[in-house]
Write a structure and sequence with these properties.
It comes from Paenibacillus hodogayensis. By secondary structure, the protein is of the alpha/beta class. The protein has 10 helices and 16 strands. It starts with a strand and ends with a strand.
């Protein structure tokens, strides 16, 4: 049997390293390549099954030095010009991308729809590599006319890589949400909703544009989806809201003030718990109103939860038999599992890594 090789682009970063460790420990027959721009850089953990390779997403052909035996690519670093994406498509290699905010996400879909695909492309860029939308889907398939409300509590003390703030460095960019009455344009850090998270912390959460708004509507039983966020430091939350509402954030947008914006948003710490709270409202098969609440907490923080979200997607592709491969096409994080068959297995996957899940 030919051994499978998974290439993790951005494999030296916080998220990439944890994806590599998870897959390495779970699959003794799997080889792993860590891709990055620095040739000869040492792997973050020692193993005879881990190698390094030069992959630069800014190069014309990022996979030039990746070799010919890559079975799956997981991208954990920005691919703003879609160069890695298209390089993987040309080589017919399955790809999981966890890095795209909404505009770059839509940009990829537009390009892929005009391209012949010969392998699956999983755009798993929803919150925490699609973890939030995956659990929303797992708990909503028996309902109709569902409204999904996702709330995230982001710790200012959490670990993070520099690409992690790309989502939040879009505070002056409006985005569309879909509601039962139709679509409408909203701005980030508006429409606050008071939320109490699993740790008892109560705060106001504000709108943020993520691909969850788009992907959750695809199956048809979900009528509306919203995502809101807050920091676990109320002073930080209100300061950002004030900068956006006053128009100051818009005035400091653009490349000239990039370093200033990053200094306001990117101050990673040593780690802290990441919380997600999902509210579902819908109707059962008898037409009765149903409310469901799913709380997700990862004591190891948002980078760990993101890595788990990517790994659970990777395992679906790795489990696919050689004689019945997943059909070529565009997939989203909530598409891959058969939620009726895999729900308990998915919950177990997260829980065995210390994630607390309650209903």
């Amino acid at each position: 049997m030919i051994r499978k090789l998974v290439l993790i682009v951005g494999g030296y970063g916080e998220v990439g390293r944890q994806i590599a460790q998870i897959l390495h420990d779970r699959h003794p027959d799997l080889d792993i390549a860590l891709g990055g721009r620095s040739p000869g850089k040492a792997a973050p953990f020692g193993s005879g099954r881990v190698q390094t390779v030069v992959v630069d997403n800014n190069a014309e052909d990022p996979l030039l030095y990746a070799g010919d035996n890559v079975s799956l690519i997981i991208n954990a670093v920005n691919d703003l010009q879609d160069r890695l994406l298209l390089s993987a498509v040309r080589r017919r290699i399955p790809l999981i991308d966890i890095t795209r905010w909404t505009e770059i996400f839509q940009q990829a879909i537009t390009k892929l729809k005009n391209t012949e695909l010969h392998a699956p492309v999983v755009l798993s860029s929803g919150w925490m590599a699609g973890t939030a939308s995956l659990f929303a889907m797992l708990n909503s398939t028996s309902l109709q006319n569902v409204s999904v409300h996702i709330h995230a509590l982001y710790s200012v003390r959490d670990k993070a890589g520099p690409d992690s703030v790309a989502y939040m460095d879009r505070m002056n960019v409006p985005f569309y949400i879909t509601e039962p009455k139709g679509s409408r344009l909203v701005f980030p850090m508006t429409d606050p909703v008071k939320v109490q998270f699993p740790n008892g912390y109560e705060t106001k959460c504000y709108r943020l544009g993520t691909p969850d708004h788009v992907t959750l509507l695809k199956p048809g039983h979900i009528d509306s989806a919203s995502f809101r966020i807050s920091f676990d430091n109320k002073a930080s939350t209100y300061a950002l809201v004030g900068l956006v509402k006053s128009g100051i954030w818009k005035r400091i947008s653009g490349d000239r003030f990039r370093s200033l914006r990053r200094s306001l948003l990117y101050n990673p710490g040593t780690g802290s718990t990441h919380h997600i709270l999902i509210h579902l409202n819908g109707r059962d098969h008898n037409g009765r109103s149903v409310e469901r609440r799913i709380a997700i907490s990862d004591p190891l923080g948002q980078t760990h939860l993101t890595a788990l979200g990517a790994a659970v997607q990777a395992e679906k592709l790795l489990r696919t038999s050689e004689d019945k491969p997943l059909a070529p096409g565009i997939y989203y994080p909530e598409d891959l599992p058969d939620v009726r068959m895999d729900k308990s297995a998915i919950i177990h996957f997260f829980e065995q890594y210390g994630v607390h899940i309650s209903h």
